[in-house]
Amino acid sequence: MLVVELAFTPAPERLAARPAHRETLTRLHTEGHLVTAGPWSDDTGALLLFAVDRAQLEQILDTDPYYRRTPGVEIRTIHTWTPITGTLQAS
Fold first, then answer.
1. What are the φ/ψ torsions at residue 44 (nearest 5 degrees)?
2. Dihedral angle at the C-alpha atoms of 7, 10, 11, 17, nearest 10 degrees?
3. pLDDT grade, residue 90 (50/70/90)?
4. The pLDDT value given to residue 85
5. Where are the domains of the chain?
């Protein structure tokens, strides 16, 4: 799995691009590529957990302009994550 951490600023372009980006997230989740995603409670960024390899992730990041071309959105980190126990559940 790959974890992507984003950082946000209150740029109006980011807020305008967010609905289309969230539609893409819903599609990726339905397709099984995205496990879960959501913003920090203070809206300074977000965490996304993908069930894809690095090449697939790069394609996803390049396809959705939100990640690379939208003012106010910065990819902070991408980490490989190997869970060892538990299941993910929405609270």
1. -95, 0
2. 70
3. very low
4. 81
5. 12-80
